[in-house]
Design brief:
about 475 residues, alpha/beta, 7-stranded mixed β-sheet, 4-stranded mixed β-sheet, 14 helices, disordered N terminus
């Protein structure tokens, strides 16, 4: 590589795979930074970016230089259908969001220690989407910051330090959250479960500790909630009480898990009786992804109202903005320490303008209704595939938060991790980007931008059908049939 490169916009004419309205106009793929060959990009990443930082498709990574709607484009102009990005919530580079950020950045960007209308009007609008007395917000920059702050509030309000979390859960990358995230501390290299963390089984009725198939006449919500009651009893034996119960309203890293409808209601009552409060982590599942409601916890009934809600990822459609929203009582407890809270970038005018534009896009583009329609379509077509392919063990989800659990055998439900990884590789070859998750990494997880269309879904499912058919034939040949 040359030692210096001109920091000038570089124009590249995108290939015919780009949307037609864009092929007529070359785009600046480098901005004010130089554009370098992919091999050099990869070399520089290996040299200067920490090896622990995840890179998709590490053996053959993609160099993505542009996004639009539900698509990403590489340096050669190849188009990839994006089934991964729950951050680009209203679509990559949504014009309303881009314009809002550009306009406000040209006027003012400063911290929240000055009065500014963007902050108060945005927070007022955000709080109106929440039930109960959830009406006081602190804006931050990431889901990790939000969850860390929510824990601080819980400790201060209750005077307790013990946290109840769910197995396989992930709540963020800072130390306080690694300590309550079995997805991290229980994996190879993890430090194990800390003393003040109590892990309850995930209320997964398909492959969890208690399976609906083994308890056909039992209330699965109450059965799983009783596990939390047991943890509270064990705390009491040690003279301790819970500070907080924290859970994603639908568990993502655990394999796209939807809880029994009455589970959270039962758990919330138990934790509050014991002196704790409850946090709904909506960082991955909020902002209308479930279709029927703005917030995933609302899908379990009107009586499910958390004490604190955290949100992030889709909130700024790729711009770093997140929030903690709580009650006036908990906010007052946090303030009573006398230690002021200040976040350099949290609640700045640009972030608030962008966040407000995301809400505009959700409303104007009818994305919640769209999420329901497309999500229902995917589930319906996936269930048709399940009749054809016995490796599909379970299909679950709400709206555009969906998972397909792959198995070697439907009776034993042995996870089919190898098949999941094969599918992801084959889809990438067809320029469809999908990822897997769950404790066995066998669950195909679908969390695309909400602008993902039925046509996009049909394309994905047709490709999945073809790959499963290929795999079945190959397996039959290997077995000599």
């Amino acid at each position: 590589m040359p030692s210096s490169l001109p920091y000038l916009p570089v124009q590249v004419t995108i290939s015919k795979t780009m949307p037609k309205e864009d092929t007529d106009n070359p785009i600046e793929v480098g901005g004010i930074m130089p554009v370098i060959p992919k091999a050099d990009t990869e070399t520089l990443r290996k040299k200067h970016i920490g090896p622990s930082c995840k890179l998709f498709f590490r053996k053959d990574p993609l160099k993505i230089i542009r996004g639009k709607g539900a698509f990403l484009y590489d340096e050669e102009g190849n188009e990839y259908l994006d089934c991964i990005n729950n951050v680009a919530h209203v679509g990559h580079c949504h014009p309303l969001v881009v314009e809002a950020g550009q306009k406000q950045m040209a006027i003012l960007n400063t911290n929240s220690r000055f009065l500014h209308d963007n902050l108060v009007l945005y927070v007022e609008r955000l709080c109106k989407t929440l039930p109960g007395n959830l009406s006081v917000a602190i804006l931050v920059n990431s889901g990790s910051e939000a969850n860390d702050l929510a824990l601080r509030m819980a400790y201060q309000h209750t005077g307790n330090k013990d946290v109840i979390t769910l197995d396989h859960s992930y709540h963020g990358h800072v130390i306080s959250l690694i300590d309550i995230s079995p997805y991290k501390f229980d994996k190879p290299g993890g430090a194990g479960c800390p003393e003040h963390t109590w892990v309850a089984p995930v209320p997964d009725v398909y492959r969890g500790k208690h399976r609906q198939s083994e308890h056909p006449d039992q209330d699965m919500g109450k059965l799983y909630a009783s596990e939390v009651d047991d943890l509270i009893s064990k705390m009491e034996e040690k003279g301790r009480k819970p500070a907080v119960y924290i859970a994603e309203s639908m568990q993502s890293c655990g394999g796209q898990i939807i809880f029994p409808d009455n589970y959270l209601s039962e758990v919330y009552k138990s934790v509050r009786r014991a002196g704790g409060i409850v946090i709904a982590d909506e960082v991955q599942v909020g902002f209308g992804r479930v279709g029927s409601h703005m917030w995933a916890f609302q899908t379990y009934g009107d009586d499910v109202i958390p004490d604190i809600v955290t949100m992030g990822k889709p909130m700024g459609n790729g711009h770093p903005i997140a929030a903690v929203i709580t009650t006036p009582e908990i906010a007052a407890s946090f303030s009573a320490t006398g230690i002021e809270y200040f976040n350099t970038y949290g609640g700045n005018p640009v972030s608030c303008a962008i966040g407000n534009a995301v809400l505009d896009a959700i409303e104007k583009d009818n994305l919640m209704q769209h999420a329901t329609q497309v999500g229902d379509f995917i589930k319906e077509k996936a269930e048709e595939l399940a009749k054809k392919h016995s490796v599909i063990g379970d299909i679950r989800g709400r709206g555009m938060f969906l998972g397909i659990d792959l198995v070697k055998d439907r009776t034993t439900r042995e996870p089919n991790t190898a098949l999941a990884q094969h599918i992801l590789a084959r889809l990438k070859e067809q320029r469809i980007l999908l990822q897997s998750d769950g404790p066995y990494n066998n669950v195909l997880k679908f969390k695309s931008p909400l602008v993902f269309s039925k046509e996009n879904a049909a394309h994905l499912l047709e490709a999945l059908d073809n790959i499963l058919t290929e795999s079945s034939r190959a397996s039959t040949m290997d077995n000599g049939h």
